[in-house]
């Protein structure tokens, strides 16, 4: 990346005449672009990104935990709304967060493209020629050889297999060899950054075309079909998803089993399901494929994934009306304590055969209260263990107008408190009942607590770009590892014919080495190369080779190669 | 899943032994450091007070830990110190050998502590019948093990860095102390969501990266202190016996360059696991967010180090920030924030 924001020398000088407005605008645009793609700007944007993400870690976020945000807002009535206006509870969806990472990626692309071309050009270029004085390099050695210069260079060439090598001649019969290694470092660097761009693209595609839906299904052979949004309890569509054209696979939840350790910690969750993929549904197959749905083991069908997110209990009540007609109430109650699965809920029942609206609104029933899978017993029922060891319900039976016709949406877990306050819904019984037990109402209606069903909470997720994101992430990791482990280094040999007066050999061999990256350790490799190519001459006293220090590179050797 | 409680308690015993041995090792390194400072000061004073020189070196060993940093730079004070001493000065031919002996013993103890520490995690793993990093106690113990392991690797390659020993062991000891007291949990199986082979892969990577980054953070902190001293020798004189600033900088960089891809791997495998366990590969869970922030900060460090004007203290400061984010990620996010990663098992 260009590390200076100034215009190149060609434009820096005072122009002879006033530049036209267009030229000025062009210069401004060019300088802005240069500024944006500079390393310093990228670094500042990267910092900003980290700082901007901080509230996402410090404050509760709407996306994973909306309830925590509501709690925070009630606890902080002054600061909360200010934070809310700034988007601090939804940091990763705010325009300012998007602005930072989009600028960062523009800067990244603006830097990557020219750099990639440059690297391709560099790959084709020959290694640079041998510096005049090798002795000034951080790694250097000198010796004499009995071979002639050509033979010395040829043997060096053989030794430097895998290096990019260029052999040149200098006047006076001098032969030189330049070698380079480690171009993969820059390749890794480019792959890493390009993968980042691809990763962001994949995430964006997922956000546009993916969806997530949650649904509660009774584990008693009930069926769920991915037919449309209406099949879900909650549905989060991607920006380009309208809920039509979902893959209509179907599944049946036959059974659910949870096991717990003696201390109440969950040990395993398993749901036995059967499913038909879209093809089977469309063909009208009767065969269903079985699957054991467990935590960490989703069902993958048709590009959708089905997860087992949670579970709970649904008490089953049979209401026998005075005329002998029966109605069964079975609906999920929600856990209020995850450790003991103490649950609350409201099972709502319409009386049978009542055609008069007014009469109907006087005789609707709601069985509401607490359910304990393992009851503490006593008058005040609570749960002591999450498994169905000794279930008991502590319920109020309310009779009157449930308000179902009022047009207002109401929770399936509660009765409409307004109706109770207005006296239109009245408590007619309060009892603790174990399975098989009955509650008798004043008008002869009997309510039997039959038993308990399990329900499971399922999530269906769809993300068409998930595999692409994974591939980008793997490429990113590979590129990163290459760019941090490969060392770029240069090695030079100069073989000069010896003066006739010199003893010991026909050729003076000078070697030089330069590591071009921060990763030191070149000294060791250079030492090995030098020992083979220019073994110290026994009587070459004054030509003592430097002791190759395995790690410490010379100060000037730490030439930077990443942020020119 | 059967838990062997007896074996688990044996593991705790090993953990405590390792901690105590690390403390001894740290003390020995501190003594070495103090002796080095003394001898260094006395070498200076020796030039001015030649008569006292040989004897002073001997007494320095006797009063090793009574660090008199303000005085030691003064030759006269060193001589006065000598006069106060009633014991006969031990003749020492090589003034540094005593410091070296302390340092070497410190390293030996560190190796012993490391062996016990490793044994503790192995025993814990067998006791719980799973990888021994299923709760915060085990996780923190594993991070400290990696930090000590990384330190021993550095020592093997660069024995002259031994004088850093006390500073590396200090955060390790603090972490282990917190692990053994605040975070302690009995051997137990993990919740169903954690029962996956990804526990071994993802958490190991996080442990290894965190351990190495701990070493990098220590090196960067010392680098910053040492630079203050190099710019103004009257300040922070105790850092004068540390390795030179650029050596510390290099240790920090190398450790980070090794740890960063491992951390990246940890984040990626975490995303793969989250896809299977939670229904999405990324959901801005507090732990995910903080891991992302740490990743960005370390990316900043690596870039800063190759940007003109950002090398040196600025880059080192970024590395220290990264280290702080990792610590925040370990403690704050696990203990204070409620998220999907709340597996600490504390409280």
TrEMBL record, chain A:
Transmembrane helix listed as a keyword: yes
Main location: membrane
Record's compositionally biased regions (Basic and acidic residues): 539-550
InterPro entries: Cyt_c_bgen_Ccs1/CcsB/ResB, ResB-like_domain
Pfam families, per the entry: ResB
Region (Disordered): 1-21, 525-564
Membrane-spanning residues: 42-59, 96-114, 190-209, 467-486
Bias (Low complexity) ranges: 1-10
UniProt-annotated location(s): Membrane
Record domain ResB-like: where: 39-526
Keywords noted in UniProt: Cytochrome c-type biogenesis, Membrane, Transmembrane, Transmembrane helix
Protein name as annotated: Cytochrome c biogenesis protein ResB
Source lineage: Bacteria, Bacillati, Actinomycetota, Actinomycetes, Pseudonocardiales
TrEMBL record, chain B:
Any Pfam family hit: Cytochrom_C_asm
Primary localisation category: membrane
Keywords for the protein's UniProt record, in alphabetical order: Cytochrome c-type biogenesis, Membrane, Transmembrane, Transmembrane helix
Membrane-spanning segments: 13-31, 102-123, 135-154, 166-185, 197-225, 251-274, 286-304, 316-337
InterPro entries attached to this UniProt entry: Cyt_c_assembly, Cyt_c_biogenesis_CcsA, Cyt_c_biogenesis_CcsA/CcmC
Membrane protein topology class: Multi-pass membrane protein
Transmembrane as UniProt keyword: yes
Low complexity bias locations: 58-80
NCBIfam families associated with the record: cytochr_II_ccsB
Xref: PANTHER family: CYTOCHROME B_B6 PROTEIN-RELATED, HEME EXPORTER PROTEIN C
Name this protein carries in UniProt: C-type cytochrome biogenesis protein CcsB
Domain Cytochrome c assembly protein: 133-341
Organism: Actinomycetospora aeridis
Keyword Oxidoreductase set for record: no
Residue segments, region Disordered: 58-100
Protein's cellular compartments: Membrane
